[in-house]
Amino acid sequence: MVMPMPMVMQSRGRAPPCTRTHQIGALAIAAVVFIFARSLDRPATCVYSPSRPAPALFDHAGTLRWPERGYGSALSLKIYVYDEHEIDGLSALLRGRDGRISAESCIKGQWGSQVKIHQLILKSKFRTLKKEEADLFFVPSYVKCVRMNGGLNDKEINQTYVKVLSQMPYFRLSGGRDHVFVFPSGAGAHLFRSWATFLNRSIILTPEGDRTDKRDTSAFNTWKDIIVPGNVDDGMTTFYGSSVVQPIPLSKRKYLANFLGRAQGKVGRLQLVELAQQYPNKLESPELKLTGPDKLGRTEYFNHLRNAKFCLAPRGESSWTLRFYEAFFVECVPVILSDQVELPFQNVIDYTQISIKWPSTRIGPQLLDYLQSIPDEVIHEMIAHGRLVRCLFVYASETEPCSAMVGIMWELQRKVRRFHQSAETFWLHNGSIVNRDLVEFHDWRTPVPLP
Ligand SMILES: *[C@@H]1O[C@H](CO)[C@@H](O)[C@H](O)[C@H]1NC(C)=O
Ligand SMILES: *[C@@H]1O[C@H](CO)[C@@H](O)[C@H](O)[C@H]1NC(C)=O
Ligand SMILES: *[C@@H]1O[C@H](CO)[C@@H](O)[C@H](O)[C@H]1NC(C)=O
């Protein structure tokens, strides 16, 4: 499907158009023609006229230039970040209807990635202040945190998003294709009730690749969206001896495996709790108080987590769980018990080297027997491999040699398209982009009509 493209590019242009015969012929032999393009004696009428710069599709030898695996050889991105003062409603998505919810209170915990990604992109060298030159547009929102703190209800979230989008002509221009949103919880983009109407072409960053238990459709699309790591507590991700807890030697670990978390009435989790009661010396699954006054402190929690060779990560309300990421920092081997899970940076990380995925339908003594059969040397090796890649799960700047942000930037770069258009975008012979009323793009007035 890649090959016909140069022919399409060549057959347009200001020179007299190619005849239909030329075009059909061109398509039929597209794949072959591509290789012999330079030696073929094509009719002069098909030669691209140079009055607008020719697209940089070919290298000196006439070979089609296609970015290396779609990523390019170096990061080179221009991201525009919308400012809350520029768009009416954006501040409500960031700080609630009364503006009372602070970014500091939203940066902590499981969903802090929505704040961290925003703050890191603001500081990024890939940020641009010019919309005209942007490859991508970042729409900040801390809506998961805002909703949890009563700052907006579901109806308000939906209405506010629609209001915000209608003030973005560039969103309309591309149909949202170059606009980036972060949805950091299991609900994914479902937090915005009408996401499917408005955001189903946009790039969504989310740790959740699966529907939640309460929805029958997934808001994650494996082709356009990007799975990001969960936000592991900063105290755990600090390396070089300063982290809250240090891993303990394998031989000193008390348990074969553990599952630390609430059962939440989920089948797999209940089975683990039961299994732990049957095999208390192998599997630790205590009743942990993760909320309320007797809440387990984070150091205590990490101290538990590091005391097993394997950390079990069953699905909860949705398929991703923070436990999976935490395992790499206390250095236990994560065992995924969540069949639908989607993991971040799958193009660079081979998860078979650093984790185990076991069918959630086979939670029982067989799982423990299997884990017990794995020699310590193999466990050591998996942990050592995990140590190498875990920097990709840390929300640090893209100026670090390795961080979640570097990974996200590469994945974003892969999504950059040369051209964007929506069903309500049209273009003319001279490069003018117009709407259905033939109004030129720079004259589009907000609110712009949305689907
Ligand atoms: C979301 O808001 C838009 C605009 O106000 C409205 O048309 C739409 O019906 C709302 N969606 C839901 C699910 O309420
Ligand atoms: C995206 O939204 C449009 C408009 O509502 C709809 O027609 C289309 O089917 C949706 N596509 C997907 C993949 O959900
Ligand atoms: C392109 O052509 C249209 C229609 O002739 C015209 O209205 C528009 O001003 C032109 N745009 C430019 C950039 O010349």
TrEMBL record:
Similarity remark: Belongs to the glycosyltransferase 47 family.
Its keywords, alphabetically, are: Glycosyltransferase, Golgi apparatus, Signal-anchor, Transferase, Transmembrane
Pfam families recorded: Exostosin_GT47 (PF03016)
Q: Transmembrane stretches, by residue range?
A: none
Q: How does it sit in the membrane?
A: Single-pass type II membrane protein
Per UniProt, residues of the Exostosin GT47 domain are 77-363
Taxonomic source organism: Dioscorea zingiberensis
Localization in the cell: Golgi apparatus membrane
Q: What is this protein called?
A: Exostosin GT47 domain-containing protein
Concerning InterPro entries, the annotation shows: Exostosin, Exostosin_GT47
* Superkingdom in the source lineage: Eukaryota
Q: GO MF terms on file? A: glycosyltransferase activity
Establish whether keyword rRNA-binding is in the entry: no
Q: Which GO terms describe its cellular component?
A: Golgi membrane
UniProt cross-references to PANTHER family, sorted A to Z: EXOSTOSIN HEPARAN SULFATE GLYCOSYLTRANSFERASE -RELATED, EXOSTOSIN-LIKE 2
